[in-house]
Each structure stands twice: as structure tokens, then as C-alpha cells.
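Re: the 372-residue chain
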Amino acid sequence: MTYFRGMEGMRAWLSWAVVFAHIVHMTGADHTYSFLKVFMYLGDFAVNVFIMISGFVITSLILEKKEDYKTYISRRFLRIYPVYLICLIIGIFASELYAEAMFSFPWGEQTPPLDRLSDSMNSLAGNGYIYHIIAHLTMLHGAIPNDVLYDSQYMFLAPAWSLSLEWQFYLVAPLLIALIQKPKGAIIAALGAFILLAVYQLGGFGFFRLHSILAGAGIFFGVGIGARFMMNQLPRLKTYPIAFMVLALGCAAYGYKTIPFIIFMILVIYILVDQPQDSISKRIEKVMHVLLDSKIARYMGKISYSTYLVHAPILQLLVYLLATHTDLSLIQTIGVLCLTLPVITFICSALLHRYVEQPFINVGRKLFSQKS
């Protein structure tokens, strides 16, 4: 498959943005320190860029490999499910310990409101636990609205709401890409996505806290899909369109929801630039290369999937230990988490990638190499 520079490095930055956003979210620090809300926005932006990159990469895979559906979906399953299952199992136990710690009000008045956490734990009563487990084992838990199974999207392993969304996209992507390649197919696909989004926005699919159902995230996947289809027709650039990039960033000041699209646009520009000629573009190229294409950035990108999933249960376990075995204040707890979580997450991510993720990717290649 065609290698597009910058993709791996961007994944690394996005995954770590989510890590630090969750430190703020799971301690509720944004309720006490309002300036930390920016990390919450960064986490949301990062996930939306992830979705656009997924649309781009999966479209590229389908267009270039031309696998039959069974091979395609089996390899996708082997790519994501083993690491997910391990993190889910850890998350089931870690989430209960986390809830126990938070209900002890470890930071007194600085402990965030726990109404939602209480409702989530209550939804596990009776057969709720079994329903949540089944939903997560199918990876379709993100498509279940809150009024059917409360907080299904976030139960046990919070980051996996977007993994469920990815899985929904994987299931239909080959059919969608095939439709787009037919005459008038792109119009039909766009119209269908618009209708589904309208139904989603009007609550026709039920209540969701975030767009964890495919109908609500079509615009993000659509941007990635469209960018991949246009990539071969777009000219290669010898200079960075600096004025255009500055203008785009300026637009973000008037509408912060455009930031994920701007980040993805800058990534596409980086892909298109080929050996820039002017001095300013050369400087930008060096910085972009270090950020997105250095050996460290590419490696962190390779393990970013494991990073994205495993950090959440690790964070919950650390919060439990700090809240129940120390007398640290909220700000001191955040400081310790910022020092310890990245180190432990990196080690666990590297181990998961090497001993779980990569071996199952190799299994998929061996099983289906002759068929594909």
C-alpha cells in the first residue's frame, strides 16, 4: 500500500493528546481549574482527526489491495481486536476500582460531580453487566444509545467509543467505496450521509453524548475518503501555501470546531509538498519532518493504537492508588499522574504492540496472503 508520510507521526501526537485530556477528565480537574478545559477540547479534536485519517487510510487500503470482503474484514479484526480485548478485560476491573476511589471523595470539595459515574455504575445492576459485556465484545457498543443501554459508549474502556465507530466504518467501507467509484455514486453517498446525519442530529437514533454511531461521524470519514480520492489528482507542491495555512488557522479563532479539519488539511499539505525550494518552506519542512517523520515520531505512531487504548485503565488504576493510599491534593495528584502515566503507558504500549498487535497482524498476513 502507498506510504503517505506524516500519518504515523500524526497518530502519535493525537494519541498523546487524548492521554493528557483523560488525565484532566478522569480527575475532574477541569471543574476546579477552568484553564484545563483546553485539554478536553484537544482530546475531542484529536479523535476527530483520527477519524479523518481512518477514512483516508482505509480508502487507500481498499483501492490498492482489492481484497475480497472476508479477507479485508478478517485482517481488520485481527489488527484491532486482540489489543482491544486485553485492554477491555483490564478496564472492567480498573473501572470498578476507579469508581470506588472517586466515591470516597478523595479531594474533598474539589472532587468533581459524580452523578454520571453513579448512573453508570447503577446501569450495571441486574442483567446490565451482561448486556454491557456483550455489547463490548461485539465492538458495537458505540452504536447503542444511552436511552437503551446507559453510557454503553464509555463503559469499562472509555476511549473504545471511537474504536466502535471505526469498526462500524470498517464493516461498510468496501460497499461505500465501491458505490463512490460508480457514476453518480459519490452524490448518492453524500446525500445518504447528509440524511443520516440529519436524522442523528434530530435524535432519530437515540441520545449519544458523542458521535459514536456512524451516522453522526460521516462528515469526518467523508473528509478522509474524499482526500484520498483526490490525492492522485492534486499537484505536488514545491512550496508551502503559508498564506492559506495562516488564513485557515485564523478561521479557527471564529469557529473552534473547524480545528480538526485544519489539522487534517495541514497534514495533507505536508504530504503534497515535495522538496520545497524557498527558504521559509525549507524551515517549515524541517520542523514538520521532526514532528511527523522522525524515527521517534514514526515509532510512537506505530504503537499509538495500543497507547490510545491501554492508557485509560492504567490511568484509572493510578487514580485508585493515589486516591486511596495517599493524601495528595488534586493538583498534586495531577502532577504525579503527568509524571507516571506517560512512562507506564509507553512501556505497556510498546509491549502490547510487539507481543500482541504485531503478531496478530502477521497472522492476518499469513492466513490471507495467498487468497489476496
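The radius of gyration is 21 Å.
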